[in-house]
Specification:
By secondary structure, the chain is α/β, with parallel strands linked by helices. Helix content is 28%, strand content 19%. It contains 13 helices and 16 strands. Strands 1, 2, 3, 4, 5 and 16 form a six-stranded mixed beta sheet that branches. A hairpin with a 2-residue loop joins strand 3 and strand 4. The longest helix is centred in the first third of the chain and has 15 residues. The chain is globular. The relative contact order is 0.17. The chain binds flavin-adenine dinucleotide (FAD).
C-alpha cells in the first residue's frame, strides 16, 4: 500500500471536525483533515436561515477560547446581528478553519477500510492515506429521513429540506411543507418570502413555540439577571432542569438507556423559535393531520390527508428530520459496519468517542446515542473535542483506549506496510 501516513485523519470540516482539529493540533498530534469547510451549512441549510441556538451556544470550541464568535466579531470590526444568520455563521466557521487548520484538504473521503494497525482512507481522486485513527465528523446530511408514503413521488417533486441551500427556486409555486419543527416552520417562512404559496402540515395537535427571542426569555437571559446562571447553562438545549443534564454529556452517558430516549424526546421535540412566529403570516398551518398518500397527477402531486381532504401542489418539502444510522455512511467499507456495536443505528462509544473498533471515533449527531442531544448542536464541540483529545493522548482512563494510545505515543507508529 502506498500513500501518505499520519496519526489521525478527520473526515468532515464542519463545527465538530474543525473543533477536533484545533484541539489535536494544539497538542501537536500529526493529523490531516478532509472536506470543505462548513459545506453542510452552505449546501444543506437554506439561505436566509437564522440560527436557532443563541450566541453563547454557537461558538465552535478551540482549546484557548481564541476563536469564539466574539473574537470573530471583534476581528470583523462590526457587530453581527442576533439571532446569528446562516451566512455569518458560515463565514465564522471558515475564519475558524483558516486560523486553526489552514492546511485543510478540501477533498472528500470516498472510503474508509480497516488496514494493518489502523485504517486506509481513500480520497475521491483515489489517493489514499494510512492513519492510526480516524475521526468521523460528517454531520447529519446522510441521515435525512424520508417517510415511506412519499416514495411514490420522484425526489424532484418531493425533496428533503436538507437538499436545498436556496429555496428561491420555488417562487410562484404551490408548496406543502411536511413537519412541525424549526426547519419546517423556517423553510415555510422563507418560501413565503420568496413568493411561494405555502401550507405546513403538522402531525402534532399544535405547533410548539419556544420562548427564545420572547421578552421573558430575553429578560431571563440578560447577563445581569441572577436567575440566568441557575436556569440556563451556556448550551441551553431543552427546558430548564433538563437542560443541565443535556449540558453534562458525561452524566447523560451514565444514565440508563430507557431514560436517554425520554430526555431526547423532551429536549429536542419539534418546536419553532419564538422570533419566527411573526414571520408565519400568510403561511397556512394545518395541525393534527397526517399525509396518508402522495401521487403524481401530471406534473403535480396530489396529497391525501387522514381527514379525507386533498391538496394538489407543485412540490412537497419534507422537513421530516434525520435518523442516525451509521450503516448509511456509504464511505465506510461494507465489512466495517457489522463489526461496530450499535444501538438503534448509533455507534456505541467510549468516553473518548471511540467505537467498538479501536481507533475509529464518531463526533456530532452520531455520538448523540451515547452522549445525548448536546452532540446535535455546535455547543457540544467543547465537550467532544476535549474528550477525544484526552483519549488520543491516552488520558481518558479507558482501558482499550489507553493501550492503543500508549503504543502510539511510545513511538511505535507504524507505516501502512508495517
Ligand atoms: C436546518 C438546520 C438548522 C440548524 N440550526 C442549528 C443551530 O441553530 N444551532 C446549532 O448548534 N445547530 C444547528 N443545527 C445542527 C447542525 O447541523 C450542527 O450543530 C452542526 O452542523 C454539527 O456539526 P458537524 O461538524 O457534526 O456536522 P456538519 O456541520 O454537517 O459538518 C459535516 C461536514 O462533513 C462533510 N462531509 C460529509 N461527508 C464527507 C466525506 N465523505 N468526506 C469529506 N467531508 C465530508 C460535510 O460536507 C460537512 O461539511 C441545524 C441543523 C439543521 C439541519
Amino acid at each position: 500500500m502506498t500513500g501518505m501516513t499520519c496519526q489521525v485523519v478527520i473526515v468532515g470540516a464542519g463545527p465538530y471536525g474543525l473543533a477536533a482539529a484545533a484541539y489535536l493540533r494544539s497538542e501537536n498530534v500529526d493529523l490531516r483533515i478532509f472536506g470543505k469547510a462548513m459545506e453542510s451549512w452552505e449546501r444543506h441549510m437554506p439561505a436566509g436561515m437564522l440560527l436557532r441556538s443563541y450566541w453563547e451556544g454557537s461558538h465552535i470550541s478551540d482549546p484557548h477560547g481564541d476563536l469564539t464568535l466574539d473574537r470573530y466579531q471583534r476581528a470583523l470590526g462590526v457587530p453581527l446581528p442576533r439571532p446569528v444568520r446562516r451566512d455569518d455563521f458560515i463565514n465564522y466557521g471558515q475564519w475558524f478553519q483558516r486560523k486553526a487548520v489552514p492546511d485543510l484538504d478540501g477533498r472528500r473521503v470516498a472510503r474508509i477500510e480497516a488496514a494493518s494497525k489502523g485504517f486506509r482512507v481513500m480520497l475521491e481522486d483515489s489517493e489514499s492515506v494510512w492513519a492510526r485513527r480516524v475521526v468521523i465528523a460528517t454531520g447529519i446530511a446522510s441521515f435525512a429521513w424520508r417517510p415511506r408514503q412519499f416514495n411514490t413521488v420522484p425526489p424532484s417533486l418531493a425533496s428533503h429540506s436538507s437538499e436545498h441551500g436556496d429555496l428561491g427556486r420555488f417562487a410562484g409555486q404551490c408548496v406543502v411543507v411536511v413537519g412541525g419543527g424549526q426547519s419546517a416552520l423556517e423553510s415555510a417562512a422563507l418560501l413565503r418570502d420568496s413568493g411561494a404559496t405555502v401550507e405546513v402540515i403538522v402531525r402534532a395537535p399544535g405547533v410548539h413555540w419556544l420562548r427564545y427571542g420572547t421578552r421573558l426569555h430575553t429578560w431571563l437571559h440578560n447577563k445581569a439577571n441572577p436567575l440566568r446562571r441557575i436556569l440556563y447553562p451556556p448550551s441551553d438545549v431543552g427546558p430548564p432542569g433538563l437542560n443541565w443534564i443535556v449540558d453534562t454529556p458525561d452524566l447523560f452517558r451514565r444514565l440508563p438507556f430507557a431514560i436517554h430516549s425520554r430526555i431526547e424526546r423532551r429536549a429536542i421535540r419539534p418546536a419553532g423559535a419564538g422570533w419566527l412566529r411573526p414571520r408565519m403570516k400568510g403561511v397556512r398551518i394545518t395541525t393534527g393531520r397526517v399525509v396518508m398518500s402522495a401521487n403524481l397527477v401530471g406534473r403535480r402531486v396530489r396529497l391525501k390527508l387522514d381527514d379525507g381532504t386533498e391538496r394538489c401542489v407543485d412540490h412537497i418539502l419534507l422537513a421530516t428530520g434525520y435518523r442516525v444510522d451509521i450503516s448509511r455512511c456509504t464511505f465506510l467499507a461494507p465489512d466495517l459496519v457489522p463489526s461496530l456495536r450499535r444501538v438503534d443505528g448509533y455507534p456505541e462509544l467510549t468516553a473518548g468517542f471511540e467505537a467498538s473498533l479501536p481507533g475509529l471515533h464518531f463526533l456530532g449527531a452520531a455520538a448523540a446515542g451515547t452522549f445525548g442531544p448536546l452532540m446535535r448542536f455546535v455547543a457540544g464541540t467543547k465537550y467532544a473535542a476535549s474528550a477525544l483529545t484526552r483519549c488520543i493522548l491516552g488520558r481518558a482512563g479507558n482501558p482499550v483506549t489507553s493501550q492503543v494510545a500508549s503504543r502510539e505515543w511510545d513511538g511505535l507508529a507504524q507505516t501502512p506496510d508495517g
